[in-house]
Each structure stands twice: as C-alpha cells, then as structure tokens.
C-alpha cells in the first residue's frame, strides 16, 4: 500500500503474502521466551510494515531444520524461537527479545546456500541470547536522562550540545559493539552446528554489493559517512566474520548445503509483490489501486511501504508519490496551501485537470531544493506527486509534468497480466555465460550485475557447465 515521505539526499530487511501465525521452530522440548502484549503489538506492527508473512511450506521446512540444528548447538538449547518469513523484497532480518526472529523473502533470495542463511539466523539468535535489546533500552534511558538534565538546568548551550553528542556517540558505539558481538556468537553457533562458518562473511559481502546496486548511481559513495551509524560498516563486519570463522575451520571445510537450499527457494517471489505495487524500469504499476505512471528519464524508482520514491542518476532530482485522505469538502488549492508542506508559493497555486482527474499544482522553495507539487483527487483519495530539483529549470518542469500526465488507470488486461517476478533455479549448459544468462532476466534493471550478486559471483567469475544457478523470471 502506498504511503509517503521524500528522501533527498543492519542486517535489516523483510516479506508478504498471507498473514498467519508463524510456526515455532527450535529444539524439542523447549521453552519459549515470555510473550507479552507489547511483543504481540510489535509483531503486528512488523507484519503490517513488511506486508505480512510469506507462506511457503518447503522454505519453512528448511528454515525449521536449520534453526533446530542451531538451537541444539547454542548455549541455551532449552529455548525455542518463532521464525517469520516476511513478504518483502527488502534484504533484512531482526529479532525481538521474546525470541521471535524475522527474515525477509528478499534476504532468502539473496543467500546462496544454507550456511549463509544459518549465519543470519544465528546472528539474530545471538542478539536474543546476549539480551542486547534490554541492554540497549537501558543505555537509551540513561542517554535521555542526561540530555533532559542538561536541558532543564539551562546551562551553556555548547555544553548541552557536547553532552548530547557524547551520549549519542556512546549509544552508537554500544550498538556497534553489539553487532560485532552478535556476529562472533553467531559464527560460533553456526560452526558448532556443522555449517560453514565462512557463510557469514560471504553473505555480508553480498549484502554490501546488493545495497550498492540499489543506490542511485552518482559521483558520491552510496554509503553515508555517518560516524554515529548504529551498524558497523559492512567491510569491517566481513573482515571480523572471516577472523571469527578462522577460529573454527579452514575455508571450504564445512557444509554449505547449496543444492538443498536452491531447491527450497526455487520459484519464490522475487522483489515486490504486485498486489502492493511494483516497478518495471521507469514505470510503476499498482494493480490493486488500478493506476500506473512513468518516471522521468534516468530516474530509478523504489516502492516502499510509505511511498514510491524516485531519484535521478547523479542525485540532482528526486520525486515522491503517496496517497492521503482529505475531506471531500476541502478544495485542492486549499489543501496545497494548508501548511503540510512549508514555503508553498500561494500565488503560484492553480487548479488544473490531469487525464480527467481534478488536480492542483504549486511550487515551494527550500534551502537546497526547489519543489513542484501536484495533487490529484482520485475517488476519495488524494494522490500527491512531490518533485524536487537542485535547480529549477524548464527541462525539469517539463519532465515533471510529463510524469504527472502519464498517470492513468490500468486497463483490465494490464491488471490481469500483473504477476510477480520469481526465482528460477536452472542448470548451466554448454555455451552459457554470465551475460547470456543475465539477458534472460529482461524484467529487471542492470541484469548482469544483479545476476552476479544473486549467484555470489565476483566481477571476474563465470558460470561452469552443470552449475546450479538462480535467474529471475516473470
């Protein structure tokens, strides 16, 4: 479902098909950690944010067996865990203190073997075993107390800012230490369970490459240089994971279980679930809501739970589309000038019509960005297009208007033809190359790079005859 926020500028992503209670996975007999109303509320919030749970008995069976082995090899074999596969194309995983673990469909698709998946599950189990959530909450409480004390005493603003910066630094360092600790514990659990402990390093490297691929190309490093980032930089974690693995076994000496893993993920949904809207190149389609539009040239689109976000290559322009409810008696011009967006030029606000839909448009100015805003009334909803440019030009305005003019209802045939992309596992044949196999994935952008990442191949590696490999098909 569409939402809205414009972005200019851990192991953590998840999935959705059908909402159902996740099975309890773990050693038998086992004691489940305490479930509280707060935990249940958080579970519901997670399902809502990540499209519900993804129902796949074959994949659930693989995860169940993997978790049972990990639990039996952990320091607390008496505990059980609930694992939910989330119906999201994002690459993420996380845990609640109750022992509820979450992995996204996107993460499962990215992993290449069971040892890589086991590294993710054991890492999240480690957070539970080390009680990181409770410790983090206490540190957050202390930092908030320090900030409040300085603010209430009315002391020197510079001292207050210094105290706040120090508390943030403490929290960030604390969280980074937790991640490194969970990596170490997780690698140990996976190794004791008989899985290849180098799976963690391989998967962290794949995550880094995948994240870089998703970032709009520009002259800037796609990773923000945020010293207060809550997670260690992935290269640091890869090196740390490799060092941890060396304590247990040499490379290639343990079980990867690639064949079983690929059989379990064959035919799983890849990327976005069409029922929630999906991207095909520069075009966005939402069969459930029944509309489509095409972004300007050189824009990369991303469908999030809150909004459709687009960024132009180089980062000089951006856009956002979301849906809100507005009282039917409020005019679109009044809504544009109602204050939900700052610095709107009321003298530039005008009513227009876009493909038969009542609409209004205006401009706004920020410190670094110039905005063009369109709002359209579609039934009882208001669709908001927000475009931003470093510099407002005739070309930018024309591109934005063309995008808005491309907004239209989907035909019945288009709605019926909308189907998800899926992972298909095939066997490489004589003559197959990375390029020829990637060309079979015509429905996704940058297919060669994405093919390499999906199959754990670096920039020089090629496929071999009889290799089992993943491709994306529709």
Structural key phrases:
7-stranded antiparallel β-sheet, alpha+beta, 474 residues, Protein Transport Mog1p, Chain A, 5-stranded mixed β-sheet, Membrane-bound Lytic Murein Transglycosylase D, Chain A, 3 domains, single chain, 19 strands, 14 helices
Strands of the widest sheet, in order across it, are 10-11-12-16-15-14-13
Domain module tally: 3
Class per helix and strand makeup: alpha+beta
> What's the story with the biggest beta sheet?
7 strands, antiparallel
Beta-strand percent range: 15-25%
The tally of helices reads 14
Query: What value does the average pLDDT take?
Result: 81
- Low-pLDDT residue spans: 1-30, 167-173, 216-230
- Shape label: globular
Distance between the termini: 22 Å
Q: What's the β-strand tally?
A: 19
Characterise the protein shown here:
This protein has 474 residues and is α+β, with helices and mostly antiparallel strands. It folds into three domains: 237 residues, no CATH class; 143 residues, Protein Transport Mog1p, Chain A; 54 residues, Membrane-bound Lytic Murein Transglycosylase D, Chain A (Roll), CATH 3.10.350. Helices cover 39% and strands 21% of the residues. The chain has 14 helices and 19 strands. The strands form four sheets. The chain has a seven-stranded antiparallel sheet. Strands 1, 2, 3, 4 and 5 form a five-stranded mixed sheet that branches. A hairpin with a 2-residue loop joins strand 13 and strand 14. The longest helix has 36 residues. It is globular, with a radius of gyration of 24 Å. The N terminus is likely disordered.
């Amino acid at each position: 479902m569409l939402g809205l926020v414009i972005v200019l500028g851990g192991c953590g992503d998840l999935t959705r098909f059908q909402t159902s209670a996740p099975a309890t996975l773990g050693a038998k007999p086992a004691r489940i950690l305490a479930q509280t109303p707060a935990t249940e509320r958080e579970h519901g919030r997670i399902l809502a944010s990540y499209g519900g749970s993804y129902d796949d008995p074959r994949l659930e069976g693989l995860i169940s067996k993997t978790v049972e082995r990990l639990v039996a090899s952990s320091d607390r074999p008496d505990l059980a865990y609930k694992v939910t596969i989330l119906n999201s194309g994002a690459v993420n995983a996380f845990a609640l203190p109750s022992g509820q673990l979450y992995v996204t469909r996107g993460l499962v698709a990215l992993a290449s073997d069971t040892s890589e998946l086991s590294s993710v599950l054991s890492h999240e189990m480690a957070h539970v075993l080390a009680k990181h959530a409770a410790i983090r909450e206490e540190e957050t409480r202390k930092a908030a107390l320090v900030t409040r004390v300085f603010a209430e005493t009315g002391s020197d603003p510079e001292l207050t800012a210094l105290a706040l910066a120090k508390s943030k630094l403490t929290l960030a360092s604390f969280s980074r230490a937790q991640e490194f600790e969970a990596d170490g514990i997780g690698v140990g659990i996976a190794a004791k369970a008989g899985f290849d402990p180098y799976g963690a390093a391989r998967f962290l490297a794949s995550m880094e490459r995948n994240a870089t691929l998703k970032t709009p190309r520009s002259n800037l490093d796609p990773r923000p240089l945020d010293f207060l980032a809550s997670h260690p930089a992935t290269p640091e974690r890869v090196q740390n994971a490799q060092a941890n693995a060396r304590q247990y076994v040499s490379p290639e000496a343990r079980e990867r279980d690639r064949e079983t893993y690929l059989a379990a993920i064959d035919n799983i949904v890849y990327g976005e679930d069409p029922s929630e809207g999906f991207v095909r190149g520069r075009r966005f389609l939402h069969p459930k809501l029944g509309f489509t539009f095409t972004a300007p040239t050189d824009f990369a689109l991303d469908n999030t739970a809150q909004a459709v976000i687009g960024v132009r290559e180089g980062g000089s322009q951006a856009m956002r589309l979301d849906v809100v409810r507005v009282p039917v008696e409020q005019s679109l011009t009044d809504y544009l000038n109602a204050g939900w967006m700052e610095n709107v030029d009321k003298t530039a606000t005008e009513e227009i019509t876009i493909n038969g839909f009542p609409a209004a448009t205006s401009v706004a100015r920020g410190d670094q960005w110039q905005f063009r805003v369109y709002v359209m009334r579609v039934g009882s909803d208001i669709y908001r297009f927000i475009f931003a440019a470093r510099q407002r030009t005739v070309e930018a305005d024309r591109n934005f208007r063309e995008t808005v003019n491309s907004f239209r209802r989907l035909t019945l045939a288009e709605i019926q033809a909308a189907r998800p992309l899926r992972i298909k596992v095939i066997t490489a044949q004589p003559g197959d190359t990375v390029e020829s196999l990637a060309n079979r994935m015509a429905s996704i952008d940058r297919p060669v790079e994405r093919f390499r990442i999906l199959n754990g191949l670096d920039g020089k590696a090629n496929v071999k005859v009889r290799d089992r490999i993943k491709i994306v098909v529709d």
